[in-house]
Amino acid sequence: MAKGMREIKRKIKSTQNTKQITKAMEMVAASKLRRAQNAALASRPYSDKLKEVVSSIATGSGSVKHPMLQSREIKRSAYLVISSDRGQAGGLNSNLLKKLMETIKEKHKSNDEFSLFVIGRKGYDFLKRRGFTIQQEAIGVPDSPTFADIKSIASAAVKGFENGDYDELFVVYNRFINAISQLPTIKQMLPLDASQLGGDKSGPSADYEYEPSAEEVLSVLLPKYAETLVYSAMLENKACEFGARMTAMGNATKNATKMINELTLNYNRARQAAITQEIAEIVGGANALS
Amino acid sequence: MSTLRLEVVTPERKVYEQDVDMVVVKGVGGELGILPRHIPLVTPLKIAPVKAKKAGSEEFIAVHGGFMEVRKDKVVILAETAELGSDIDVARAQQAKERAEQRLASKQEEIDHKRAELALQRALTRIQSSGH
Predict the structure, then answer these.
(1) Nearest chain B CA: its distance from A50 CA (Å)
(2) Among the partner residues A39, A45, A206, nearest to B40 by beta-carbon distance
(3) In terms of domains, do B82 and B105 share one?
(4) What's the CA gap between B39 and A162, in Å, rounded?
């Protein structure tokens, strides 16, 4: 009996350790989530402004043509997959990758019809294991990414579109709804939807002079704008990651508490049984003597 | 005398936001001085320091590319990176400058060359902006 008790005790101990870790991870994720949300907020003025200027050029002077605004016949597609480097975030990455796989299966017959760009180790490992060729990857992006961290992969993805390697570019990422819910999303990034850009045009937006010319300004701005879209998707995905991890670790902590309670109950029962048995033995021995 | 509001915004944060008398920038078409009530204008920028004149004093901001939007009483500069002159680590910029110059002197591949040139420009911009 005593042996069983020792085993239970050991289990309690190890569950307690696990609980401590998950609890700490939950709190770390919570504070990182706040930071990620702030970062997403801080990036907004930049992307808003850029969008404003781009849309005022794109809609203002109707004659402006730019390859990134025109939809072409679709022969090849590209996906920029944004995943996290670490797991322990519930179904965050697997839901996203599942969605990606479904879309790919639906839209493409062979693996030659699309290119993949991947941010994050989870997505990279997953796709690599399935034998896809990955054009470029970015692994080890820090928790509060700067623009420079993703600039090279973002501009490579945009450049491929410009060169005509593919005719549409999608960003695959988790949309942040709130701290406990994330929505895997596949969003078309290129060609930019001109109607969407001009959608919320109201009020007096200035008629700009362009130097040297509207076309040239646009050709500088549009790739930047596209890269900014990638950056904000990246920030959003980071926020999702921490949100999901917080929830997952919260659940793990809760489960550990439950398990400890159960084990403690079992332990006490075993202890009680051991004591009862000992008493019975003593009483039995005493009776035999008298 | 009227002033104009200068904002320098990067994807990560707002670097600068103040009322100034005049802004001097280097656009792709050449140097531009912006005074209040300038006609609305959009232009890409070169890697160069931006000068903000304010009540007799001057401030420099190292702006690495990006572009500028001018409105009647407001100038917004959007750049991928921008630093205030006072925040710049001059020693590091100096090192970067020397490194870039070395690379340029060694003349390797074409891409390296271009990158080194850009790095040199950035380093020079930083050094100039920090007022040395």
Answers:
(1) 8
(2) A206
(3) no
(4) 32
B28·A210 Cβ contact <8 A? no
- How far apart CA B12 and CA A234 sit, in angstroms, is 13
Nearest Cα of chain B lies from the Cα of A80 at a distance, in angstroms, of 20
Mean pLDDT by 10 residues, chain B (132 residues): 85 86 87 88 86 85 85 86 80 82 71 73 79 61
As its CATH architecture, domain A2-19+249-289 has Orthogonal Bundle (1.10)
Question: Are B68 and B81 part of one and the same domain?
Answer: yes
How distant is the Cα of A100 from the closest Cα of chain B, in angstroms?
A: 28
Cβ-Cβ pairs closer than 8 A, A with B, add up to: 73
Q: Calculate the dihedral angle through the C-alpha atoms of B108, B121, A53, B72, rounding to the nearest 10 degrees.
A: -160
Q: Is A54 on the interface with B (CB under 8 A)?
A: no
Q: B66 and B38, same structural domain?
A: yes
Domain that holds residue B99: 89-129
CATH number, domain containing residue B22 = 2.60.15.10
Name the token pair of A212: 């040297």
Q: Say whether residue A217 is in contact with chain B using an 8 A CB cutoff.
A: yes
A217–B43 C-beta distance less than 8 A: yes
Residues B103 and B50 in one domain: no
pLDDT in tens, A18-27: 999 999 999 9
CA dist A139 and A83 (Å) reads 10
Based on the fold, state whether residues B8 and B70 are members of the same structural domain: yes
What's A27-248's CATH class?
alpha beta
Domain ranges of chain A: 2-19+249-289, 27-248
Residue where the block lists tokens 């020693």 = B91
Does B24 share its domain with B60? yes
* Nearest Cα to Cα of residue A246 among A92, A134, A62, A57: A92
Q: The pTM is what? A: 0.80
- Alpha carbon B81 to its chain centroid, in Å, reads 9
The count of domains in chain B is: 2
Q: Min CA distance, A56 vs chain B (Å)?
A: 11
Please tell me if residue B42 touches chain A, with a CB cutoff of 8 Å.
yes
ipTM value greater than 0.90 = no
Nearest alpha-carbon partner for A205 in B74, B6, B29: B74
Provide the CATH number for the domain around residue B100: 1.20.5.440
| Closest chain B residue by Cα to residue A36 | B12
Q: List, for residues B97-114, the tens digit of each pLDDT value.
A: 888 877 777 766 666 677
Subunit contact A211:B13, Cβ cutoff 8 A: no
Whether B55 and B19 share a structural domain: yes
